[in-house]
Design goal:
By secondary structure, the chain is an alpha/beta fold. It has helices spanning about 20-25, 65-75, 105-115, 145-165, 175-185, 210-215, 235-245, 260-265, 280-290, 295-310, 320-330, and strands spanning about 35-45, 50, 60-65, 80-85, 120-125, 140, 145, 165-170, 195-200, 250-255, 275-280, 315-320. It contains eleven helices and twelve strands. The protein has an eight-stranded parallel beta barrel, surrounded by eight helices.
């Protein structure tokens, strides 16, 4: 009869801390909370309209009159705040709707501020949704003129801050945009408004659904001359350091899921809150796979958000915010 020598019992058993849900919860290293989430919302002209976005199931373009109720539902779930994007009634080469005092997002901010003084309101600062050519700045000689764009971004930021935005979020990736905005806010006696810079915004393939939702696809060329090359990580450190030196109060890496290494890399060097944008393409992939039954949506979403938080992020901008907050409340 074959005899097998008894092995000594292992003294170290990591599985002890995985034995029950109560134990696992008690020793969890990274926790995701609805207060970590910022919910992006698209605002459109009209009244009483909730227009579904085909490539982003569960998301919609809302008219201004529907925003207070939407905001109430979001904040009731414990979500930290909203980030607003606008679809104007008309466009022009200079994106004047972005800095119109009666622009679509300016009206949205005023409506939300009137409804709730405590709501955290962030407003995107860019020209792409408002320009007839779809680029993020002024076009000269066939390309985006960085320095000619800065005054327009500054005007947009001032108009949004004056409307009541707590945070203005420049996303155009123009060199010097934070300094220009910070100077303009100070001159307008709006220096208390915070600036969240899209500091490391990559020229990513994951923005497709957003461009449909916001109607912001470039009419020619692409954005690779101003958004970052996906192969670069050291450059993100430089971009973030520049924005912090210019007065950014928060900085962001975008996208999030495909750039977890960048987030983890920059975190030790960032002295301000770090945000990450879980972008439209990342959201749409999960929705499509869940629709086909290829993955369990709740577990997948919470795992993704946990991974982003584990990389060192303070705030996650995500279209999953409402669903994720509801799931977390049930746990």
């Amino acid at each position: 009869m074959l005899r097998v020598a008894a092995e000594p019992e292992p003294a170290v058993r990591p599985r002890r801390l995985r034995r029950t849900r109560a134990v696992r919860d008690a020793v969890r290293e990274t926790r995701v909370d609805p207060r970590d989430f910022i919910y992006p919302i698209f605002v459109r002209p009209g009244r009483g309209i909730r227009e579904p976005i085909a490539s982003m199931p569960g998301q919609a373009r809302l008219t201004v009159d529907l925003l207070p109720a939407e905001a109430e539902a979001v904040t009731a779930l414990g979500v930290a705040g909203l980030l607003l994007f606008g679809l104007p009634e008309s466009k022009d080469p200079y994106g004047s709707g972005a800095y119109d005092e009666d622009g679509i997002v300016q009206r949205a901010v005023r409506a939300l501020r009137a409804a709730d003084r405590d709501l955290l309101i962030m407003a995107d600062v860019c020209l792409c949704e408002y320009t007839s050519h779809g680029h993020c700045g002024v076009i000269r000689d066939g390309g985006v003129d960085n320095d000619a764009t800065l005054p327009l971004l500054a005007r947009a930021a001032v108009s949004l801050a004056a409307a009541g935005a707590d945070v203005v979020a420049p996303s155009a990736m123009m060199d010097g945009q934070v300094a220009a905005i910070r100077a303009a806010l100070s001159e307008a006696a709006l220096a208390e408004t915070a600036v969240m810079a899209y500091s490391a915004k990559y020229a990513s393939a994951f923005y497709g659904p957003f461009r449909e939702a916001a109607g912001s696809s470039p009419q020619f060329g692409d954005r690779r001359t101003y958004q970052m090359d996906p192969g670069n990580a050291r450059e993100a450190e430089r971009e973030i350091a520049l924005d912090v030196s210019e007065g950014a109060d928060l900085v962001m890496v975008k996208p999030a899921l495909a750039y977890l290494d960048v987030l983890q890399r920059v975190r030790p060097h960032v002295p301000v809150p770090l945000a990450a944008y879980n972008v439209s393409g990342e959201y749409a992939m999960v929705k499509a796979a869940a629709r086909e039954g290829w993955l369990e949506e709740e577990r997948a979403v919470l795992e993704i958000l946990t991974a982003i938080k584990r990389a060192g992020v303070d705030l996650i901008l995500t279209y999953h915010a409402k669903e994720a907050a509801a799931w977390l409340a049930q746990r």
